[in-house]
Amino acid sequence: MKVFSNVNFVLNPPEYYKNQYEVAIDQAYGGGTPSMDTFVLNPQIYFRARRDSGNNLKCWLTYKIFEGEETYVKVFVVKADGPERVSMITTDNQVAEDDTPYYGGRYSNHFVLNRDEEYIAIVSTFQNEDPISGVFEIKANTPLTYKLIKPL
Length: 152
Hints:
Elements: H1 15-29, E1 36-42, E2 45-51, E3 56-65, E4 71-79, E5 85-86, E6 89-90, E7 100-102, E8 105-114, E9 118-127, E10 130-139, E11 145-150
Antiparallel strand pairs: 1-2, 2-3, 3-8, 4-5, 4-7, 4-9, 6-8, 9-10, 10-11
């Protein structure tokens, strides 16, 4: 089984990014994040995962949209060896749609991965009609490892 390198990611984001996102995540999920792995996809989007004691990993893609900018965020995760798609839940506990417009604020999609399985995650954002996309592989292991396929 191949192991992915995390060399392309910032696993401990700079304080500038931490300050922007930490409050929102703490409020949404009750704080207590020392066991999370984190990397920054760009200044607006970042991914974190928390290991639990079972066979699952609870993961979040969190993004901040600047006020007044209409932004579409498209995010989905599939198993690396097949078409099975991972369901995502939005901040307000609704199933995430493929295309969702946001008009400022902080949002999270959270999802669960099975430990030791491999996944492909695709993130696309559209701001002012300029698409920004990223694709990365996730190996749901301990520790989590990531490989950037197509940068944001």
